[in-house]
Amino acid sequence: MVPSRQEQHFIDHPRLPFLTLRSTFNSGLAYKTHQHETVSLGVVLEGTTRSTINGSEYHLQAGDMVLIPPHCAHACNPKTGHRSYHMLYIDQQWCVEVLNANPDQMVFTTKQHVLRDATLFASLKAWLDDFSNPQYDDLTPLTAIIQHAGDLTPASPRHLDRITQSEQSIQALAAEQGMSQEGFIRAIKRQTGLSPLALRHNQRIELAKQFIAQGMPLIEVALLVGYQDQSQFHKHFVHFTAATPKQYQGRLTSPPTTTRKS
Question: Among its keywords, does the record have DNA repair (predicted)?
């Protein structure tokens, strides 16, 4: 494993509550396969990385952008050395509305995952570099990306609550469906890109992020999402986010003290 000199910030825009920016520098850390409730837009600033999205592998370098729909299984691992990037988490409803559709009827997807367009990249990077400025809320650079690469598909129920919210074993859940444990695991992985157990932990961490953003103490958050052991909560949080709960708790609403320029 490449030692990491990682520096990162989570930034909430004071006037755009449907956006959260994660800026990460000099990171050699890898991510387990995971998914988000939000749309994710990555911007590679330095280095190279290997991204796997729904089983397809993409090799990314500085100047590339990657757009990932909600509930889409993905992972990101540096190819060599370290990489720096912005990752913007965007409320799905806003993206659907940008595409002039009803969020109750349609969900956001993409025409393409990887974008290589120097003009769009430069515009978006300049916008993200000034993201925490409360006076700077022009959404034109982001809207251009969503309109360029975004797409829509009819909404459909996912029927996964029994897995993500239940404390039952995977074997017991499989038996409820009249399936073997192995067959159940294969079926869920085909549907979501994650094993049932990974999906359960992933959803717990996504819920934990919401509670942390509301200001709840970390001990309470861990218990609320189903972890009696703080060390287990910490381990899974890092595995799915490459950040500690404490780092995520330190989300910023003002500019970070370190200013970086390309």
Answer: no
> Do residues 148 and 190 both lie within one domain?
no
Strands 19-27 and 83-90: antiparallel
Residue that is last in its domain, among 137, 156, 175: 156
Q: What is the pTM of this model?
A: 0.79
Domain boundary among 99, 123, 156: 156
Q: Is residue 157 predicted with pLDDT exceeding 70? A: no
Residue 252 lies inside a defined structural domain of this protein: no
What is the mean pLDDT of the segment spanning 131-157?
88
Half-sphere exposure for 154 (CA within 13 Å, toward CB): 1
| Backbone phi, psi, residue 45, to 5° | -95, -40
DSSP helix/strand/coil, 7: strand
Domain that holds residue 232: 161-247
Alpha carbon distance 122, 100 (integer Å): 26
46-97 per-position pLDDT tens digit? 999 999 998 899 999 999 999 999 999 999 888 777 899 999 999 999 999 9
17 and 83 Cβ atoms separated by less than 8 Å: no
Q: 75 near 27, Cβ under 8 Å? A: no
**Residue 30 backbone dihedrals phi, psi, to 5 degrees:** -100, 160
How many Cα neighbours within 13 Å face the side chain of 3? Answer: 1
pLDDT at 122 over 50: yes
